[in-house]
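Handout, page 2. Input:
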Amino acid sequence: MYLSGLDYAIIIAYFLIVLGVGLWISKLARNDLDQYFLGGNKIKWYFLGLSNASGMFDISGVMWTVTLLFVYGLKSAWIPWLWPVWNQVFVMIFLAVWIRRSNVMTGASWILTRFSGRGGALSKNIIIVFAVIGAIGFIAYFFEGIGKFCAAILPWDLSVNHSLLSISSENVYALIIVGITTLYTLRGGMMSVVATEVFQYIIMTISSLAIAAIAFNAVGYNDIMEVVPKGWDEMFFGWKMDLDWSASLPQLNGKIATDGFEFIGALFMMMLFKGFFSSLAGPVPGYDMQRLLSTRTPFEAAKMSGFTIAVLFSPRYLMIAAFAVLAIVFLTPDMASNPQIDFETILPNAIASFLPAGLKGLLLAGLMAAFMGTFAAVINAAPAYIANDLLKNSLLPGKNEKTYVRYGYLSSFLLVLIGVFFGFFASSLNAITLWITASLYGGYTAANVLKWVWWRFNGYGYFWGMLAGLLASTVKLIFFGDWIDIYFFPIIFAFSILGCLLGSYLSSHDDMKVLKSFYKNVRPWGFWKPVLKEVQKEDSTFKPNDMFGRDMLNVVIGIVWQMALVVWPIFLMIKKWDALALSLAVVAITSLALKFLWYDSLKKEAIQNG
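Output:
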């Protein structure tokens, strides 16, 4: 890719500013774990929301989503339900409040507010293990994405070919960016992460609007339809995708067959099944949970989650849709003549082809810095579990706070090394994404649903359920690597449920004092009648949470709202005006409904609770 002197100047200046801000802020977080990992619970909720949104502009995710839209058209809007992308809606509606009421530092500490005794200790340890494994998986995912991106956009061949060592240019670029990111994150913790990501969000939004303007003026609806297969511009589907690229880009038919998305009807039903339980389980122990725990109050945690959805999807999908349609119209002929094309490099190829000097440098710097921000959030979150929960509260108590912060540095460094090692052997972004979302998270789901809704579920059940899920997902990865991950989810889920039930029924329930404290503080709905009776013996005025119906209604409204925020930028970029008008009307109606049915009720409850 050709970069002008202006592009280089912008990239260098941007990195110097980001690193300077991160290192300057680091002085606020060097001596205290709470400051380092949570920002002292002093960060404004809207800054945390912008930080969360900026992190989701990560290169790996944007590259993957551009490829999905290019290949599958409007139907690709459903594929991120694999995560599921609407887990943020569950968090926004009720889980953020439940989680933040704990006033703890990490998900492992949070577990001890729910479980007690030896079972509680085992539960805390398995959460630490999961947090570490999840962080390693994400580091490998980010490593794979940033390497491909940098190798495609930067002009230098940095590959190493020696008799003792051979490293591709992609991996050398990834090592450099990962090293820089690790440096400023180790120094500044959560404060550095948030400060740099807010700045990055502003840059990325400006870039998205500029790219959308270029694509809007360069591409028309008929230009797109001449290239894509029939049904590409249709959002809804039957049993199969039924997209045939033979006429313009026949290589894509092979990619569709190997991706595992062809039978989208079955996939959609599996995504709904997995999505409901995975979303109800709550955020995994990682950077999403750290941002929730960093907010000042439960009300602000909920507002932060809603704000993330509101400010993320439209600018992100403006960029994704703009690059996809530009690539479809102008790059398809060149790709058709290249039988070895890597479709996951569509994004950097589009940047090289369509952006003018200056904007190219700004976007490249923003994307790389957004990668740095998301990567930084991952390596800030997982070490909190090691430094705080494993070392401070278990193995090495009684040290001063500076010592535990240094242990946090060391933990981050070691996790990055291990994640990078696995990143060298990653086959593709799609493969890593599917394993994380379906297999790994499948092992997390059952135990973390039951912890909210069933009083008899105890610490032993949690430990054995999580362990069974982790083992099943590992077996899948090692022995059934060719299986499509999401179709393996019910098997992993079943093993995990079995572990939960056996662990719970073969041991006694948790200490009633701990159960009463959790139930009174968190106030979840579900099967809590024996605990409710005990609480009401002490406080006859205590009322159970009877808002399950309202919460589920708001979840459905929120999912529709989120989906409309995703698709209207795509309809705008392909100039499908009737669908654009309908999607914007849905955004307006669902926003109004959430204001009255969710936000007003949440605000009233926050005022009543002081």
